[in-house]
Amino acid sequence: MDETETVSNNKKTSQATKNGQEKGKASDELKRKKAVRRNSQGAKENLHKCVQKTNLPKRKREPLQSTRNISDHYPKKKHAVTKQEEFYSMSHSPLGYCLIINNYNFGSTSLGNRKGTEKDKDDLTRVFKKKPFKVEVRDDLQAKDIRNVIKEFAERDHSQMDAFVCCVLSHGEKGSVLGIDGNQVPICELTQPFAECHTLACKPKLFFIQACQGSEAQQGVWMADGHESTTEEGTFEEDSHTAAFQSIPKSADFLIGIASVEHCRSYRHVKNGSIFIQELCKQLEDGCPRNKDINSILTKVNRAVSTQIFQRFKQMPEVRYTLTKTLVLPMKQVS
User: Fold this and answer.
1) Which residues lie in Basic and acidic residues bias regions (predicted)?
2) Which of 166, 167, 171, 264 is catalytic?
3) Domain at 163, CATH number
4) Which of 29, 42, 146, 181 is disulfide-compatible with 142, CB 3.0–4.6 A?
């Protein structure tokens, strides 16, 4: 091959290479333009969507709230408490038995007869009949008779009744009440049989005890610019030594109200009855028609008794309870 032919072939090869490069550049340029067009179209579509979104009505912005009150915006579920859960049912008539143990005659002992106790018995009978309870009175019981009557009432059928009340009017010693023979009956022996009574389960069992809790006379205290008691003292007696109720039963639904705090005396007027029982009757008659609960009533009893003076001394009743609901005793309307 001569030199001329070689040069000619080289030129052809160079020209082909150049043409191929130009074609490649053209192809790349075409691809670039297509990509630009696609991107441009996508941008237009996105812009259109953004415009559509901006045309939506604006949501009203809520004012910022303190996180301290966040629970106000997201209230917790509350358990609906029904009246049945809050209050003891008092729908039967009679509501229940009311046992009154009234010991007056202690003539066979060194203890004096309990003058004025008849007034307490009559007033308690009147008040609890209005509730209405079926009132039964037992007079002048020896210790063994007190135990027997307590057992009798605890073994009765209370299924068609809503409550039980026991009032004990007697002398006493620490932790006990006394039979007219001077023998002791521990307070726990009055209450425990009713804790084991199945037909009184979940029903209120109320005990009101008129007796001292000790031989100490409760002294008054000076009050700065306080109200002065104007109670006429009259003739008062003490209900023996003590009748401290050591503790209420472990079972629920008990209430025990006693005339005086532990170690101290309680007083009874020889004609008008005991201070505690008389004030209890008064507050029950006043509060029950106005649907006052028993705790509120007994708080008023405490206040009224504690502000008076008896033989230059004071008296402070005490109430203990394991009630699990609010107790409102209805008062029967008297025509």
Assistant:
1) 20-31
2) 171
3) 3.40.50.1460
4) 181
Q: Is 264 in the active site?
A: no
What secondary structure, in 3-state letters, does the chain show? CCHHHHHHHHHHHHHHHHHHHHHHHHHHHHHHHHHHHHHHHHHHHHHHHHHHHHCCCCCCCCCCCCHHHHHHHCCCCCCCCCHHHHECCCCCCCCEEEEEEECCCCCCCCCCCCCCHHHHHHHHHHHHHCCCCEEEEEECCCHHHHHHHHHHHHCCCCCCCCEEEEEEECCEECCEEECCCCCEEEHHHHHHHHHCCHHHCCCCEEEEEECCCCCECECCCCCCCCCCCCCCCCCEEECECCCCCCCCCCCCCEEEEECCCCCECCEEECCCEEHHHHHHHHHHHHHHHHCCCHHHHHHHHHHHHHCCCECCEECCCEEEECCCCECCCCCCCCC
What's this model's pTM, rounded to 2 decimal places?
0.68
Residue of 212, 264, 281, 288 marked active site: 212
Does 90 map to a domain? yes
Q: Is 50 a catalytic residue?
A: no
What pLDDT was estimated at residue 229?
45
